[in-house]
Amino acid sequence: MTHAAPLNARRQLGAGGPLVAPLALGTMTFGAETPEADAHAQLDMFVEAGGNHIDTADVYGPDGAAESIIGRWLAARGHHDDLIIATKGRFGPPPGSTGASRRALEMSLDASLTRLGIDAVDLYYVHGWDPHTPLVETLDALSTIVRSGRVRHLGWSNCTGWQLARIVTLCEAHGFVRPVAFQPQYNLLDRGIEWEVMPYALEADLGLAPWSPLGGGWLTGKYTRTERPAGATRLGEDPERGVEAYDGRNTERTWWVLDAVGEIAGAHDVPWSHVALAWVAGRPGVSTVLLGARTTTQLAENLAATGLELSTGERRRLDEISAPGLPPYPYGMIEEFCDVPYWQRLGTHTTSPGGTP
After folding, report:
1. Which of 127, 148, 167, 181 could form a disulfide with 155 if both were Cys (CB 3.0 to 4.6 A apart)?
2. What is this structure's pTM?
3. Known catalytic residues?
4. What beta strand segments (E) does the chain contain?
5. Close Cβ partners of 230 (under 8 Å, ≥ 6 residues apart)
């Protein structure tokens, strides 16, 4: 049996990272799909329920609107020492800068702190790999930022396994400040990080903070096999939206997974989203799961997922039916040398699921 952690429980985010709740509040909708008053209501609800980790970025909402909205909420609240606040830089460099260059990161961080109205963030993520800036320059700039006191911990997002390994290797070789966390997309419909990224994160003691745990709404049961989405949903407004595009995910494997999620949800009499969130939260190395919601109603429903416990049999069924399969080489060949399937070996790693309590 997988025991659900209440929202007021705390897990360490990687080796030496901050203590965070099992669910974090993602704020990509703030200032774009979610107006400020509703965003403030979400923040109030999240904290009152026991959450402490708020995740944002300099490109969420026009002109950093999400950070500004959070900043005004923090100012009205009057204190934030009980919160773990994360933001990101990379995709909104100031004029005259590129990606994750020294100038871009330093100026982007300053702008983020101004919008948030705080002196330091607990976590600063590089939002994605930058092929145009020498990695040593990026890592040196990040280390300088940490030592200046404006950032307490570092993380990365949206990298391949070899890129993540290169980051950590250079940090250890040159004495740069090492990241404690990694943010990937991860859900029952997209388990690609299990080939390289997750095994390396486990070996390197990086805490995982997955985004899109509901697969852009797919794992809530809102879409059907026979009808393209329409109306006031993300895919209804843009069926070709990013990695969750309807035509890309409208496959037999997707519907097999959704059928299983629906049956397990029905057995527990809970929303489908609870099953999907419980599965992600219990995966190896996952410290916290990023929730994003348009409305307080959606957020309230998802926060209640902390009460669900999946049985060993239910978890095994979800593991098996959503297993993504392996390219014949080298992964398929490696699997032939092992006594258990490649994906299953993740669960036998010495690092405990969910990070260090």
Report:
1. 181
2. 0.90
3. 60
4. 11-12, 19-20, 23-26, 53-55, 84-89, 121-126, 151-157, 181-183, 207-208, 289-291
5. 236
